[in-house]
């Protein structure tokens, strides 16, 4: 399965990004994934978005704190993700370590935002799901399920942007590790 995310906003280094920053980015991807789940083949798998299913049926729901997360790429589905990232930033090409932060640490922030939180402490303490966040869609159960990354950087030619602002096009390809009836059409 292939699709593309778009992100336009701040992307801090992992050292300076707060859990609030990561949750804000996660919400951008949630809204795009919510639309993706309304289309085939995911539309046909709406039963996975129920929490109270018999043990022999698959549920994508993972409860963390007040949220019910629904990751698309999970270990149980034997899926992995490959990412092709076009990373535009307001800096000259080749300036990998700059005022906005080094690329690899900014990518770590992105990867954290693409996955569901692992524990309640990774969710802002005063945060809860909004009306359209039941469930809260995310790409990954764990960022260890990313098996390939390609990054191309270039200068973002857009006026009056902060040092941390970026424009990202993230091509996602899901891959099956093992073909099962459950992941047919997803990789």
Strand content: 25-35%
**Biggest pleated-sheet summary:** 4 strands, mixed
Classification by helices and strands: alpha/beta
CATH topology: 60s Ribosomal Protein L30, Chain: A
- Supply the CATH class: Alpha Beta
CATH superfamily: Holliday junction resolvase RusA
Instruction: Round the Cα radius of gyration to an integer and report it.
Output: 17 Å
Please state how the strands of the largest beta sheet are arranged side by side: 1-7-4-6
What CATH architecture would you give? Answer: 2-Layer Sandwich
Structure description:
The structure is a single chain. The protein has one domain (2-176): 60s Ribosomal Protein L30, Chain: A. The chain starts with a strand and ends in an 11-residue tail after the last strand. With 187 residues, the chain is an alpha/beta fold. Helix content is 16%, strand content 30%. Helix 1 crosses helix 2. The protein contains 2 helices and 7 strands, in the order βαβββαβββ. A hairpin with a 2-residue loop joins strand 2 and strand 3. The relative contact order is 0.29. The strands form 2 sheets. It has a 4-stranded mixed beta sheet, with helices on one face. A 3-stranded mixed beta sheet has the order 2-3-5.
